[in-house]
Amino acid sequence: MSPSACDVSVITVNWNGKDHLETLLPSLTVLQPREIILVDNGSSDGSQEFVRTRYPQVKILQNSVNQGFAQPNNLAAETAAGQYLAFINNDMRVDGKWLTAALARLSGRVVCVGSRILDWQGEKIDFNGSSLQYLGYAVQRDVGLPAETASNPDRILFACGGAMVVDREVFRRTGGFDEDYFAIFEDVDLGWRLWLAGHEIAFAPESLAFHKGHSTFKTQANEKMRYLMHRNALLTVLKNYEDEAFRKIFPLAVVMAIKRAVLFSGVEKERFYLWAPARQRLDHGDRSAHFQILDALNHLVALDDVLENLPSLLRKRATVQAMRQRPDTEIFNLFVDPFRTIVEQAEYLNVEKTNLDMFEISKLFEPFGCPPAVQDGKDQLEEKVALLRRELKTLQWQESQVSAHPVSLASSGLRRFIRTCRTEGFAAAWRRFLERVNRGL
Q1: 43 and 134 in a common domain
Q2: Does the chain have fewer CB atoms within 10 Å around its N or its C terminus?
């Protein structure tokens, strides 16, 4: 007999999301779960008063400040009365079969189930299964595709933390969400940990949630979100690979983080070579250069924070590995696309391919994926054209964000191009533009 809604504690985390709760809570109460727990992260928009007045049956736990995603959900899990936990983002609403369809997939080793997440209109996919790149960068599969074209994966590496059901005791016994993550990729880490501990995660396509789309993240500075992504990818690699893969992949993760930092900085390395000709100084007043430097430093700050805390992180790794009941070779097929290219730039790919070969990392994933090809000649030209097209799309998007950034990267880049034309001529301006394209931006 499948568990029912009365066995479930539904948990949502809220930070200044009163407007979201006006839609989410009605969709939850009609499901009649055992309880609904809201963890408030120090909201100042009247969220708590709204819930107490309109939904007095909802249990409220209070954080005095914003504690991110992991800690509030763990806090609720400790007090929950249900046998199962259902996590749902506050900027969602759920279908009437959201719980029953997920619960129906729980059986035997399947202790966690991921919902299918669609956009607010129910037309396009937001989460339809998971994929993990070998350096710890996860993606939600089929994002943006029409909902009717969705495939139905059976087992997935991780469920999206925004809409999932998990056995409460297993969740607690395996450590819950890692609070070091704060937010981003903590669901990836949990999923991998559940698999290595001998459990399984299923996908429930009929368990539907509808998402407004990263409403909290939109209020945060982009560099802060990217920092969490880069740092947490490193944490995932450090904690979860078994020993043979860890000894090969973690050093490579460090190498590639440094390489990305140098490439994204836009710095001309010859500037530091005594034997190279003198170069013009970087224009620090250029706003696009400022954003470029921030993006580059993100990789270094993330790496520095991981290495600074390496002793405690290695102890945490030992705790995770002590739970291992399944080798990674039985998990790698769930990565789906382990060698997905994260930087489409020839210099980066060359360094990556050299290290993949040197550490024989490709052999670890056979037959689950193949490393990115290193392009040259005509292929490099085609790659540059593709990069230019992507850059144009990026500039179009950035122009749409003028209200958020008073001086967009696009207009700043154009001013720099014109300035270089006036001072050094068109040929030099065009050469510098092509160099930016070569660096992959």
Answers
A1: yes
A2: N
Report CA-CA distances (Å) from 286 to 83, 119, 271, 416.
Answer: 56, 37, 19, 8
Neighbours of 248 (CB within 10 A): 19
Q: Which domain holds residue 399?
A: 383-441
User: Element (H or E) spanning 29, and its range?
Assistant: helix 18-29
Shared domain for 50 and 194, answered yes or no, is yes
**Among candidate residues 83, 111, 116, the one with its CA nearest the CA of residue 101:** 116
pLDDT at 159 over 90: yes
Among all chains, which residue has been given the structure tokens 């983080």? 257
- Going by their DSSP bridges, the two strands 110-119 and 200-211 should be labelled as parallel
Pairing relation of β-strands 92-94 and 200-211? antiparallel
Question: What is the C-alpha separation between 62 and 86, in angstroms, rounded?
Answer: 19
Q: Token match 């046998």: residue?
A: 83
Helix intervals (H) in 342-408: 346-358, 361-365, 378-400
- DSSP state string for 245-300: HHHHHHHHHHHHHHHHHHHHHT--GGGG-TTSPP-PPP-TT-HHHHHHHHHHHHHH
> What's the pLDDT tens digit per position in 397-427?
444 443 333 333 344 555 565 566 556 665 5
Sort 122 into a burial class: Cβ within 10 Å, 0-12 / 13-18 / 19+: exposed
Q: Torsion angle of alpha carbons 331, 332, 334, 336, nearest 10°?
A: 180
Q: Which of 218, 241, 261 is the last residue of a domain?
A: 218
Give the count of domains, the chain.
Answer: 3
Q: Are residues 335 and 186 in the same domain?
A: no
> Is residue 287 pLDDT above 70, yes or no?
no
Q: Do 402 and 343 belong together in one domain?
A: no
What residues contact 282, with CB distance under 8 A and at least 6 apart?
267, 289
CB 97 within 8 A of CB 208: yes
What's the pTM value of the predicted model, to 2 decimals? 0.81
Identity (one letter) of the amino acid at 344? E
17, 143: one domain: yes
pLDDT of residue 415: 57
Task: Report the CATH number that the domain containing residue 12 is assigned in CATH.
Answer: 3.90.550.10
Mean pLDDT, residues 335-364 taken together: 91
Residue with tokens 């122009």: 399
